[in-house]
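Exercise 7. Given the encoded structure of a 173-residue chain, write a plausible sequence.
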């Protein structure tokens, strides 16, 4: 089995018109496909650079569940439930991060007002850029409360980046 990338990620929105406006106008992602579902819902696709972000909308859908199905608030409370989506990261060039911050601020989008430098330190982030930073990020939320990230990789991962054994609950049968 050989995969060539992600085709699309499908999320659920509370208002398709609001979602279309945000993704096409604020994030400048072209709307490339719309589908009317037989149950009265809709399924719309936005191009995010070769792959798509898609949204389902139905006239009646369960309410959002921050802290379970989505992040309650980043960075203070970013844990989510098993099987949930924590956040979606869009790949951008490092030189675009300042423009991303400016665009989010100008559009009044809730965001962390700085670039976050992810590294291998105990905290996992650094105040300043240094050679150990592997990705630089700008975090924000869409109108549905979904946490998003503009992520700029600063290095190519290699074998020395695999340093930890996986952990988890062990269930005996």
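Solution.
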């Amino acid at each position: 089995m050989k995969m060539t990338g992600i085709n699309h990620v499908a999320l659920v929105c509370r208002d398709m018109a609001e979602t279309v406006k945000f993704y096409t106008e604020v994030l400048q992602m072209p709307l490339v496909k719309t589908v009317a579902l037989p149950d009265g819902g809709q399924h719309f696709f936005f191009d995010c650079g070769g792959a798509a972000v898609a949204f389902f909308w139905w006239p009646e859908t369960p309410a959002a569940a921050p802290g379970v199905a989505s992040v309650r608030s980043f960075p203070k409370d970013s844990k989510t439930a098993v099987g949930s989506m924590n956040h979606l990261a869009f790949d951008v060039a490092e030189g675009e991060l300042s423009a991303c911050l400016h665009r989010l601020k100008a559009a009044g989008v809730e965001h962390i007002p700085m670039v976050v430098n992810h590294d291998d330190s105990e905290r996992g982030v650094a105040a300043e850029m240094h050679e150990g930073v592997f990705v630089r990020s700008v975090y924000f939320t869409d109108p549905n409360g979904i946490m998003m990230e503009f992520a700029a990789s600063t290095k190519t991962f290699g074998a020395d980046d695999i340093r930890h054994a996986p952990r988890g609950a062990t269930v005996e049968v």
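Remark. The domain at 72-157 is CATH 3.10.180.10 (2,3-Dihydroxybiphenyl 1,2-Dioxygenase; domain 1). Students should compare their own answers with the one above.
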